[in-house]
Backbone:
């Protein structure tokens, strides 16, 4: 669907869902996605897009102004990697017992084949996934009390790779977090978790959602900006 604001034009991808309210999402890639209820009339969707035009193009301008994305790591000794908001210098050593460990400011990969980037990447990916599951559970337990006091059931936590999002809250009460979020500091992880928990009450980013989020995490907008700048 085309979106217009003044002289500007862009396209939105329409997805029909079983949700009860319409939601517009400007993804980190710059894609605009509209999640609309199955029975929502097309004219009503176009009207909503027209009313949200200023916000949509403001978000697109903010995304286009971001610094260039960091190149994909080559998995060689000496390059830096993020974990929980800290930079670690990578060291790859040969070992018959492969594993990954943190030693001071170094991230050590002990691998059977030090000259095999795919082998080293699998080891590091497994390490990040294990760390993410532990840390995300700890952070969820830490930030959820204000939500449970308002009647939210503790969601099932799912950690997996996500192409374009840091997290989501599903209609079945699951909170899904992107494993790559483990590179961020705990305070930024908390922001993503609370963002999704707020969707347990309000599916879209309307006034009620903002009011709830402002109450529970007054500085969430600055955390959001830091996350977008930090993990790129």
Residues:
């Amino acid at each position: 669907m085309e979106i217009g604001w003044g002289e500007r034009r862009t396209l939105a991808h329409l997805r029909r869902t079983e949700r009860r309210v319409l939601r517009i999402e400007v993804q980190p890639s710059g894609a605009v996605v509209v999640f609309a209820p199955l029975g929502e009339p097309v004219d009503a969707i176009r009207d909503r897009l027209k009313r949200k035009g200023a916000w949509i193009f403001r978000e697109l301008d903010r995304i286009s102004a971001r610094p260039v994305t960091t190149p994909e790591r080559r998995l060689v000794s000496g390059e830096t990697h993020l974990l929980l908001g800290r930079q670690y210098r990578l060291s790859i050593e040969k070992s018959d017992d492969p594993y990954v460990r943190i030693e001071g400011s170094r991230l050590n990969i002990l691998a059977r084949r030090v000259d095999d980037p795919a082998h080293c990447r699998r080891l590091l990916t497994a390490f990040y996934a294990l760390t993410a599951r532990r840390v995300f559970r700890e952070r969820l337990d830490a930030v959820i009390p204000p939500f449970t006091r308002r009647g939210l059931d503790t969601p099932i936590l799912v950690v997996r790779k996500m192409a374009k999002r840091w997290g989501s809250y599903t209609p079945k009460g699951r909170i899904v977090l992107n494993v790559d979020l483990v590179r961020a500091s705990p305070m930024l992880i908390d922001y993503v978790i609370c963002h999704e928990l707020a969707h347990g009450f309000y599916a879209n980013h309307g006034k009620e959602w903002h009011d709830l989020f402002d109450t529970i995490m007054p500085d969430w907008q600055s955390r959001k900006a830091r996350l977008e700048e930090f993990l790129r």
User: Anything to note?
Assistant: The first strand starts at residue 2 and ends at 5. The domain at 137-230 is CATH 3.30.2010.10 (Zincin-like).
